[in-house]
Design a protein that fits this description.
Elements: H1 3-59, H2 67-80, H3 86-107, H4 111-114, H5 117-152, H6 156-160
Helix pairs in contact: 1-2, 1-5, 2-3
């Protein structure tokens, strides 16, 4: 092999090394985007978890005979706050949303509570937070879709598994979480 042949071989090897470096960095960037997007869901969920004790404190005096509803929310909130996979988190969130929905349903039996500032403020904050959670979930799922597509696409698929990149799970709503919460006091 002459000098020209050696230069060509070295150039090909250099191109392959550069491709692997760029592919690896691109996969790391997308993996970090997925993780950051999941943290944004956590931030919004934490906000919702922080709202719940204030609501429960505000409605306690009205719910003396509805203690089971308050305990159900407390239990669902504690379960949802545990670290979980996206699928388990979605299931826990569905149970929590159902428990909060039960509270609103029971609140209809208490006219004074329905018009109280505590419940109206909570409803407004909850609606705002639910919108933010929905946006964060969509951003997370978009990031997962990009990341999964990248590691499944040729030629990155050749290196992705060998470098430890695996597919990520989507955040999918299940059960009552799929339905929007409608609260009406008319």
């Amino acid at each position: 092999m002459g000098t020209a042949g050696t230069i060509i071989v070295v150039a090909i090897i250099a191109l392959i090394v550069l491709y692997v470096i760029f592919t690896y960095n691109g996969l790391v960037r997308r993996k970090n985007q997925v993780e950051e997007a999941y943290r944004q869901i956590d931030v919004q969920l934490k906000r919702r978890y922080d709202l719940i004790p204030n609501l429960l404190e505000g409605v306690k005096r009205y719910f003396k005979q509805e203690q089971q509803v308050l305990e159900e929310i407390t239990r669902a909130r504690a379960e949802a706050m545990k670290p979980q996979s996206p699928r388990e988190q979605a299931q826990s969130e569905a149970r929590l949303s159902g428990a909060i929905g039960n509270l609103f349903a029971v609140a209809e039996n208490y006219p004074e509570l329905r018009s109280s500032r505590v419940l109206l403020d909570f409803q407004e904050e909850l609606a705002s937070t639910e919108n933010k959670i929905s946006f964060a979930r969509q951003h997370y799922n978009d990031s997962v879709q990009e990341y999964n597509t990248k590691i499944q696409s040729f030629p990155a698929v050749i290196f992705a598994r060998a470098m430890g990149f695996t597919e990520r799970e989507y955040f999918e709503a299940e059960g009552p979480e799929r339905e929007s919460v409608t609260v009406s006091y008319d």
